[in-house]
Amino acid sequence: MKPPVFEYFAPDTIEESLSLLSEYGDDARPLAGGQSLVPMMNMRIVHPAVLVDLNRVVGLNRISINDETLILETMVRQSEAEMHEDVRNHCPLLTKTLRYVGVPAVKNRGTVGGSLAHADPVAELPGVAMVLGAEFVVESNVGRRTIKSADFYVTELTTSLEAGEMLREIHFPKTNPKSRSAFVESGNRKEGPAIAGVACSIMLNEKSELEEVNLAAIGVAPVAVRLTSAENVLLGQIPDNEVISEAANAAVVDIDPWEDIHATAHYRKRLTSALVAKAIIEARES
Amino acid sequence: MTTDRIAIRVIVNGRSYSREVEPRLLLVDFLRHQLHLKGTHVGCAHGVCGACTVDVNGQVMRSCSMFAVQAHDAEITTVEGLAGGGPLTPLQQAFHEHHALQCGYCTPGFLMSARELLSKNSNPTEEEIRTWLSGNLCRCTGYINIIRAVKAAAKQQNQADNELATTSEL
User: Fold this and answer.
1) Hey, which of A38, A91, A144, A162 has its CA 20 to 30 A from B11?
2) Full-prediction pTM beyond 0.90?
3) DSSP letters along A171-190, please?
């Protein structure tokens, strides 16, 4: 397989990258880790005229923390994020989920920002971004703007990034130490593509009632979706088996699954319910 | 820069190469067709099967999912660099002894992946081996013998390390 011809630029600086993205507009694609983009080019599913390779740009791969936020720059490799102490301490759900994102050879190259901006419906990280309320800092050569997760994802493989813009940083609010989380998915292999998955973050009060519940599903709608119907069932309740079962049933209202060679739409609905129950139990016991 | 050929310099298995490449040339095709290192195989060409796994700057990567031009200034190790013409490495020897290959198409990728696992984890459990190698597909062996081989190589590596430690204590 041979990818189609493209013009290639490998800038060293952010300014140069932004100026190339602005110059070539819709014809240009930023190239991060390339673990989705290059295979799609090999199969000629996509054929960007211009690639702006971000791999040599200085200052796009730091992980930092401030009082309230864990900040990942867009080119942080998935394997580095998975092993990073600050990520584990301040955003444990991200660490847990990175386990499922791919095999070592993919995560060594693939980036957190690349996966988030690619917006594959079965990608795990957009689900985590939704649950944790991450914000996306995007930049063009006219300035920066911040986009909330819910507004970032438009539809399959489409974000609200505009021509000339690139994802610069992802801001994850630091996780409250009292909260508990889980990520569960179902597929042929843990590290392989999922059929569906559920990310979950909960907080219990002293009466063991749920005072905070955040749930999102992947693989069952064009983009990762919050499961608000299930959240509403759970909020204020003690998460016993009966309540969890009711929430699991409610979750299907928020999803819009499709049928393909991997599963029917009906199966995906049943699976989502099962994964919601599993995620809450796992988070409760964690 | 344009669609024209771009000059790159890479070190592969300790030897430096300077070549001009089209930007769209995949690293795996560069290794096979320009450097004639045909040990690295093309399986699926979309990052699923692991047959093209090579070591780039100390980490395994899929050479079908990056462009040769991106490897400029990188140090690459392919399966040819493991024994380097000398005796088989303990990992390769273990694959041989435990019949961890039949057709051999996937073997270079398995060797490169298992090599990184053993460099990070000298005593992996079966679960850890299975998880680590889950990105390498083999259609012949059923994986059992591959896992046996990796365990045997780990054991041998640990014995060798212990003997070395004992010798240096003396």
Assistant:
1) A38
2) yes
3) EEEPPPTT-EEEEEEEESST
ipTM of the complex in this document: 0.94
By the CB < 8 Å criterion, does B74 face chain A?
Answer: no
What's chain A's Rg over C-alpha atoms?
A: 19
In A70-222, which residue ranges form alpha helices assigned H by DSSP?
A: 78-83, 85-90, 92-98, 104-107, 112-118, 125-132, 149-152
A286/A40: higher pLDDT: A40
Residue-wise pLDDT tens digits, A151-198: 999 999 999 999 999 999 999 999 999 999 999 999 887 777 899 999
Tokens describing residue B125: 């459990």
What φ, ψ does residue A99 adopt, rounded to 5°? Answer: -55, -35
Give residues with Cβ within 8 angstroms of B69, minimum separation 6: A8, A10, B6, B8, B21, B23, B25
The C-alpha atoms of residue A77 and residue A250 are separated, in whole angstroms, by 36
Amino acid at residue number A78:
Q
